[in-house]
Amino acid sequence: MRPLLALFFSLSLAGFVSAENRAIAVSVNNVVHPITVEVLEHAIDDLRTVAHGIYPQVLADGGVGAALTEVSRRSPLRTSVLDGWHGRHSDVVESTVYFCCLECLQNAAKHGGPGVSATVRLSERHGRVGFVVEDDGPGFDPAAVSGGSGLTNLRDRVTAIGGTLSAESRGEGQGTTISVRLPIPEEPARDTTEIDD
């Protein structure tokens, strides 16, 4: 909330000064604009943190495929969702996959710019579930990237439940592919004991 208030006051100051003196407005804009961009980035990060704690109703009701399809309908990023899961999984697995895919799509939109598209593929086989998010954005030079906070956050989420993550780019201008594999935890034995009244 504080970053949004700071942004409000920065923009208010810029508007006030602009009305009074054009030369001062240019100077303030040179100072305020970079600060405003930084404040906005922090505010977006804060909102993402809050959003990560919210379990969407469509995810609870319809599962990961349905939730990601809903996200794709509202996203400015052209997104295809291919759901290869055989059924529903634990809340931990489903929320991890959903929020990781969401972060991958947000990163594709942020770094890819207009016109970028992405495909999400959910898969299940041999006691594991997985996903691949592939975009056709600018990609990155793997030798120059040591792992930003986005990749670190994804890797932390995935490894916390025993999964693996790989991030690949075929080079600048060739898109990015994030692949994740997760074990399917065994369901706890159901209590079949009948209760006598």
**H/E element sequence:** HHHEHEEHEE
For the CA atoms, what is the radius of gyration? 22 Å
Described by the principal axes of the CA atoms, the overall outline is globular
User: Order of strands across the widest beta sheet?
Assistant: 1-2-3-5-4
Q: How can the largest sheet be summarized? A: 5 strands, mixed
Structural domain tally = 2
Total helix count?
5
Helix content: 40-55%
Proportion in β-strands:
15-25%
Q: Which CATH architecture of the largest domain would you pick?
A: 2-Layer Sandwich
CATH level 1 class label of the largest domain: Alpha Beta
Poorly predicted tracts of residues:
none
Q: How would you explain this protein's 3D organization?
A:
- The protein has helices at residues 2-20, 22-52, 57-74, 91-112, 149-160; strands at residues 78-83, 117-125, 128-135, 164-169, 176-183.
- It has 197 residues and is an alpha+beta fold.
- It has two domains: 2-51, no CATH class; 56-183, Histidine kinase-like ATPase, C-terminal domain (Heat Shock Protein 90), CATH 3.30.565.10.
- A five-stranded mixed beta sheet has the order 1-2-3-5-4, covered by helices on one side.
- The longest helix has 31 residues, at 22-52.
